[in-house]
Amino acid sequence: MDRREVESFFERAASVRALVVGDLMLDEYLWGRAERISPEAPVQVVEVAREDLRLGGAGNVVNNLAALGCRVSVGSVIGTDENGQLLRHALEEKGTGVDGLVEDPERTTSKKTRVIAANQQIVRIDREMRSSIGAASEKALLDYLLAHLGEFDVVVVSDYLKGVLTPPLLAALCRKGRELGVPVVVDPKGDDFAKYRGATVLTPNRKEAEVASGTAITDQASLEQAASQILSSLELDALLITRSEAGMSLFPAQGEAVHIPTVAREVFDVTGAGDTVISVLSLGLACGLTLADAAWVANVAAGIVVGKLGTSTVSPREIIAEVGHSLRDSDSKIKNLDVLAHLMARERARGKKMVFTNGCFDLLHVGHVKYLQKARELGDLLVVGLNTDDSVRRLKGEGRPLIEETERAHILAALGCVDYVILFDEDTPLRLIEALRPSILVKGGDYSIDEVVGRELVESMGGRVELIEFVDGRSTSRIIDKILSSK
Fold it and tell me: Is 275 a catalytic residue?
């Protein structure tokens, strides 16, 4: 995937409804300094400077999905204790749907307290219950899930082995998901994966896959053997094994395995990286990405989040920037129609005038540059519609374009006078004009006003058409002829 495709993916994310089911907990961080030893015992004394309370466990999946821009609800069981109320309040503050949150007075709400000094974790204190939820709580949660599952685009199951995800509940959830066509994506735990049978995708790490399959993963052959054993026994659509510094390996039930190398960067903290992976993967599936593309974006996100300290999230902007890193300046200007239409609507609301022009721009020359510079002077920003290779061939004949569409797009985007570039495959740019609604439509001086496609539409919206003369004697055809005659 390129930057434009990733931007379009996140543009669709706002309409996704995700349900997170699993073990919710609170993550408490106590940050301070450790500069002396206690006189009471041979332990460090941490002087706490600040405290931070975050959603943890399945709550970190909620954090990740919310940061990615989709609408999130939860299904879980918590206690009626103080930590349970703090957890509910934290979810509600994020705008998370909590209708599926069951309160059980017999349960202790999980809370993990981490003491950190000099960017190092000194100790962790856990307050929790690991026993399975009672029959009444299980029924209440399952009733909610079965009644409302069809309202969601994807279900993310986050198992921390704290007792919420009982085998009967998981079996019913996976069965209902298949019945409704709602993907059920599971981050598993433990040594028995049988309870996840029928899920859409499982995302174990390497160690978890080894334990579940009974196979030590030491090379490619053993990796494939472990994956095959898990896939065949659990009736999954796919298995995504995260392999730390070795990246990820996606094994679909049908088709070839896909191995995705890790994104090289300094690792500060892997806490919560699995939550980021399953969140991005699930969102990708809900938005219609292929399994391979969704896993690829999840791998990019994981590479970002491990460079942060503490359980963290990653934003669409960070992922998009990372994807476009190699061609950061020009790549950021090349957009898909859904993204650009949204940007232009925002610019219009700010009172900006958008200028639009289009062309093949094959073998860019000074005539093109002067033309685009003049066009940009007419408004606040310039959008260039660029013919794809197929549409250039239909217009210019076989043998054209000389430069393929991606290169032409980056060359145009590198010009300071061009704000955005968008490729179109049709013979005319009318669809772009209808979607972008420019204030000023620009064409070359070899056109008459009446010949300009989109003129009536632009004028009906209060805009205008401008014709700009090209520099005399400059054209791609003449350059081609000159090159051929010099041979």
Answer: yes
